[in-house]
Specification:
Elements: H1 38-46, H2 54-61, H3 74-77, E1 85-86, H4 91-101, E2 105-109, E3 115-120, H5 138-143, H6 146-157, H7 161-164, H8 178-188, E4 192-197, E5 200-206, H9 207-216, H10 228-242, E6 249-254, E7 257-264, H11 267-278, E8 285-292
């Protein structure tokens, strides 16, 4: 739920919950009920078909508050139906696959199914067929490394995947966290990583898969609203993690409405605190009363 950066004067409305979970007779009235007051929702959620008391049944539905959610892994987001080619696949066919499937690279696998390389768009942009191979002056050809020149010729004129592929492939495993994969992609400036189980190809993870994971993310719904004290404590810890000026920040929470006052050193610091508040579960609106410290010019 996105917090609004202003104080709300309207009565707080309850969070929507799907009515099928409660059944048609959860509350009196005609038709399905989409929203319920907090008290009634707690009572309804506390009931079980066997009449189990609320304090006994709640533990089985909600994980402990200090239990961190499981981090997303490569297995959660990777593309499993991956297109691959062999070392003998013609370059023209590989280019057709990239263009037809609208993908930027294909792994190259050997006869045993092991990953032996990858062919990406960057491997195919310097090609003799379209006249984009590098052209050197006569004196550069004289001074050039003969072995490097020969390898360059193979890459621009070779007709098989083994001629153009990048053989030193960085792979990922299914149990790698998305944080680890992102670190590898950034450090090595890669757009995708083949996923291997042992040496066998089982999928591929790309930057677009990470973007899709962001698009699928939804804030978790909570049946019992956190108390104002719990929300304030949560927000206070978040503010401590984003700014060294947290001692100059005063936070109060009333019925989900956060009031944040104090002094910060920069507008960026103030914005970070507001973002931290927006990401704190239970906050419905934000009153921003933070001031940016003026800097004297000597």
């Amino acid at each position: 739920m996105t917090a609004r950066h202003k104080r709300s004067t309207e009565p707080l409305s309850p969070h929507p919950l799907p009515s099928p979970a409660f059944g048609p007779s959860s509350v009196p009235g005609d038709g399905p009920i989409d929203i319920l007051p907090w008290r009634l929702r707690r009572e309804t959620l506390g009931r079980s078909p066997q009449g189990t008391p609320d304090n006994q049944d709640r533990g089985s539905r909600h994980p402990p508050e200090d239990e961190a959610p499981r981090p997303l892994t490569v297995a959660d987001v990777m593309t499993r139906d991956v297109v691959s080619v062999s070392t003998a696949s013609p370059v023209s066919e590989i280019a057709g696959v990239l263009a037809g499937k609208r993908i930027s690279a294909v792994p190259v696998v050997g006869a045993d199914g092991h990953v032996v390389g990858i062919v990406s768009e960057s491997d195919l942009i310097r090609r003799a067929e379209i006249g984009t191979q590098r052209r050197r002056s006569w004196w550069r050809r004289i001074l050039a490394d003969i072995e490097a020149e020969a390898a360059e010729y193979v890459r621009t004129h070779g007709r098989k995947a083994r001629h153009v592929m990048t053989s030193r492939v960085v792979t990922a495993t299914e149990d790698m966290t998305l944080a680890d994969v992102t670190d590898v992609m950034e450090k090595r400036r890669l757009k995708r990583l083949p996923v291997a189980r042992g040496k066998h190809l089982v999928g591929i993870v790309s930057r677009s898969d990470l973007v899709k994971a962001v698009a699928r993310h939804r804030d978790p719904l909570f049946a019992d609203p956190p108390t104002d004290d719990a929300v304030r404590q949560d927000l206070t810890e978040r503010v401590k993690s984003v700014t060294p000026s947290h001692r100059l920040i005063h936070i109060s929470v009333h019925r989900g409405n956060a009031d944040i006052a104090g002094v910060v050193d920069s507008a960026a610091e103030r914005e970070a605190i507001l973002v931290a508040a927006e990401n704190t579960p239970g906050i419905r609106s934000i009153q921003n009363r933070m001031l940016v410290r003026s800097r004297s010019i000597s």
